[in-house]
Amino acid sequence: MAASPFLPVPKNIHTLACETISRRIERLPFTRKGIRITEGLVGVTLECLNTEVLRTLPLRAVSRGTGTFPGLAECLRDRLGDDQEETAPVIAEILMSAGLAEPAEVLDAATHTQIRGVRLLSPWTWHIGSGNVLSGSDPYSGGETDAWLARCPVCKTGILGRVTGKRLFGTPPTDFYLDCSHCGAKFIPEKDRFRLVSIARIADPRWRQYLNSCRKPDEWSALAGEDAPARPAPRIATSRYRMASPKKVKTPLPQPPVHRQEKPARPVEGVPVTFSTLRDGTLAVTGTAKTLYFRPASLRFLRGVRHDLFSHAERTLQDALEGQAFAEIKPLFVQDYLHYLPLRLGPVTEELRRKNDPLYRKLLNRFGDEDFSSFAMEDEEQAHRKGLIIVYVQGKLCHVDGCHAAFADLVDRSFGNITADRCYRDGDETACRINSLVTTFRGTPVIWLHELSDDNAIDAAVSDLRGRYLKDPAISL
């Protein structure tokens, strides 16, 4: 059989494919099942698959009529030398896990059985006249604003490919639409803007908010860059909502609503105390020596409520388990969840939660699964003062602390800025707790401030209030 003409993979497709694998699987180069996965191997595999008319190859040679049709292993052997029987299934699995390819089956004429194969997805294919994957002469191709097409703003893994000759049911007819190669998100063009008409079911709920909104390409890029959702780990499936086919449905059907399972409200944990409230809203807290007067902190919220923030953690589960805080539960994962160790901590925790596996709670601190928000102090004059901070809500004293720097350093940078990693055992349980209280009772004062300029007086007042209210043997946190 004559050797197939291999069309070199365009540089931008190769670079984007390697970047996608690095984000989705592991940073190239890496070793998987004893096989060294490099950028060169990825490029050669893409070329082998793209050469085929159907962009499909079996993993090993199959019989076709009177001859033998080479599989991916034989193609890699011809290009790279040596035996590639073990390499073919490994690199195929990586391409499929990264969203560049999909499983396929090829008929073996000799045995009349289906042989496992791999098919390169259309957004990752090219031909001699295609040039760059994002090139073209129309307003939506080849321009500087098309850089956003190289990375889907929803899933941050796939690329947005042009789909022509098809129409999305329930949307106005267009010459083309953009479809993500990984998550299936779809954008339709409207003049110089694009409308998001379909999303995958992802952990970050904020994309539901922007469903059916129309924005310019640079606005989509800027919006996606504000707070990038973490990608799910390999083999953790995410289903998608797809639009109905026009051939099978005669009338538009509404998209099924995305429901989030509401978590039961956690009761406020604190010491029941009744403090006097003055006419001006000041809270009078009686100490051993004198009464301290606290004013509510004026807060401004920077974004909406963030659900399941822990699922955005980027470090691997293995890296997290190396910490001293996880020493107690590390043997449980090493014994029963060994295949999860190289995956990202956030998606692994989310997957365990969805499976109702109680082990996910052991990864988080007591308040790591709450709803959080971002907030900061609004009163600049108040923000630059220092003194005492208490958390008092629903008649319960939840926290007493001193602030020797500006109040804003503690409120803005700690309580009001919860990151994914702070939700875990080695994170900041106190900050998570206070943030969740502010988020839950955002319509009422939660954080109260008493201004003091003397550091010794601050320490003495904190010690007094803690000893009077939080250390009483009759009541405890």
Notes on the structure:
The protein has four domains: 11-124, Arc Repressor Mutant, subunit A; 134-252, no CATH class; 271-305 and 371-470, no CATH class; 309-363, no CATH class. With 477 residues, it is of the alpha+beta class. The chain is built from 14 helices and 21 strands. The strands form six sheets. Strands 13-20-19-21-16-15-14 form a seven-stranded antiparallel sheet, with helices on both faces. It starts with 10 loop residues before the first helix and ends in a 7-residue tail after the last helix. The model is unreliable at 131-145, 227-260 and 472-477 (pLDDT under 50). The protein has helices at residues 11-24, 39-51, 72-80, 87-97, 206-209, 217-226, 317-321, 330-336, 345-354, 359-363, 380-383, 407-415, 429-440, 455-470; strands at 30-32, 35-37, 56-58, 62-64, 67-69, 101-108, 113-120, 160-164, 176-180, 186-190, 193-198, 214-215, 271-272, 276-277, 283-286, 291-296, 299-301, 375-377, 387-393, 396-403, 447-451. It is 27% helix and 20% strand.
